[in-house]
Amino acid sequence: xxxxxxxxxxxxxxxxxxxxxxxxxxxxxxxxxxxxxxxxxxxxxxxxxxxxxxxxxxxxxxxxxxxxxxxxxxxxxxxxxxxxxxxxxxxxxxxxxxxxxxxxxxxxxxxxxxxxxxxxxxxxxxxxxxxxxxxxxxxxxxxxxxxxxxxxxxxxxxxxxxxxxxxxxxxxxxxxxxxxxxxxxxxxxxxxxxxxxxxxxxxxxxxxxxxxxxxxxxxxxxxxxxxxxxxxxxxxxxxxxxxxxxxxxxxxxxxxxxxxxxxxxxxxxxxxxxxxxxxxxxxxxxxxxxxxxxxxxxxxxxxxxxxxxxxxxxxxxxxxxxxxxxxxxxxxxxxxxxxxxxxxxxxxxxxxxxxxxxxxxxxxxxxxxxxxxxxxxxxxxxxxxxxxx
Length: 389
Description:
This protein is an alpha/beta fold. The chain contains 11 helices and 15 strands. The radius of gyration is 21 Å and the shape is globular.
């Protein structure tokens, strides 16, 4: 009889919505013990510790990562804290699951990936929207060749009035790294490139706008996490990605814009043998997914009913599987999320320069790839130096 593996002991830094998603997922898994949580809010800290039967409830993340016998930690805190906490946890010998975006910049993300490689530990980033049932159903259709070769997409995440909280760290450029492009757009970028099969991106062209937020319009949220910041980031961004082989992707993201009320994200995908459209309104568990087909005369469109999917639960479960399998450690060092961060950097730089920024796709996921020159005309800039418009 084979003995069961020893339980994995895990902790969570961050007590907000995302942190609680990680707590719920760990708590539900066999062979995993949620033994520690950390956060500054004393009331929620005590309540969550009682709810999940947590042995260690501490205010400071440094106390959490120092707990003897801990195997892994989730980092679910504001973006400006991702890098220091993740690097500290990796240096303490822990595997890390970090919330998106991996960091404020490609430079910070590169430091995190380098730390994961040095420690020989897993670094994963929670791109939970690719684990939605409707996105997984669309991915299955693409992989099966149902729409042929995808060559163009328009992907969105748009809000009418959804600035997370005016005056909070979200609207502070230094603390957040940017506005809806880095907050929502990184999800859109991730699920779109995932659906395309991770094509190489050779150039980006972006425009950002800050029309409503600076005037105090479009705010949402509960007023928490205030830092007294002016509105320093964009409230709408649009991006064109050029893909190796001639494909293209357009991404639009907004926190605030005069458009239909609510929150909408999705993708329209064009292929050589068909197409697809996915629309999710106000975080519906499953969106409206249609696969378009036909030979030009006959129309064979099909509405697909997809399961809700498992989101953070699936992300956490996959993370634990990788932690348990030592053979997967080296291949899961955060490189994919680093590539996403460098693409976001390039988008902000393109918006600031008012021109296309060209990329070397081979360097995007490498920690030392930030020195790559992007413009064939010799412009002396690098991906890591891009400003945020």
